[in-house]
Design goal:
Length: 188
């Protein structure tokens, strides 16, 4: 081996990986999964997603149904329109290494999404973080399609805390929700 390579003091250290944005996020302390069940509405989202920046003007009202199939996972059914047809997208958030943290496994390599329930009062609003790779998004859900100004303020504090801003924040329509989808419009 060339002199100094892999020997003692001259050895170069690999830099430690940068901390993931989600590692800085604290999960809701008194999170009750059973109280998260039921219907929620997607009120707002902050994300640097290029699709949102290009198509944010075409957002559709989105409703979500949450169940707890095994006492620890979240089964999420998302109902939204696409080209005027109601679709249901089914996902399962598996418990991760800590309370309030979940893992959404997608199809293919690198398609996992880390999810953290950042804050909720269980009865009117919930703020969730989603991270895929190094990209982070924050979503505000409400038990109704409109939430209090206080909940919106909290949401905006959360998005700023992870380096997002108003220019990448989108609010969803408060009308035109789907309640179901036929068997031909369900994605698992």
């Amino acid at each position: 081996a060339p002199p100094g390579l892999g020997q003692g003091q001259g050895r170069r250290r690999r830099p430690s990986p940068a901390q993931s944005p989600l590692e800085k996020v604290t999960a809701q302390a008194e999170l009750s999964l059973s109280q998260l069940t039921g219907r929620w509405f997607l009120v707002g989202m902050a994300s640097r997603c290029s699709y949102l920046s290009e198509h944010g003007h075409r957002l559709e009202a989105t409703a979500v149904a949450v169940t707890i199939p095994d006492g620890q996972s979240l089964a999420i059914s998302t109902f939204r329109k696409l080209d005027g047809v109601c679709w249901e997208i089914r996902q399962c958030y598996l418990p991760a290494n800590a309370h309030g943290r979940f893992l959404l496994k997608g199809r293919g390599y690198g398609s996992k999404v880390d999810v953290v329930v950042g804050e909720t009062d269980h009865s009117s609003y919930a703020i969730l973080y989603y991270q895929k790779g190094r990209s982070i998004s924050v979503k505000l859900y409400g038990r109704t399609s409109q939430v209090s100004d206080a909940a919106v303020d909290k949401f905006e504090q959360h998005i700023r805390a992870v380096g997002l801003s108003e220019d990448v924040t989108y609010y969803f329509p408060t009308y035109g929700f789907c309640d179901s989808a036929d068997d031909f419009h369900i994605l698992d």
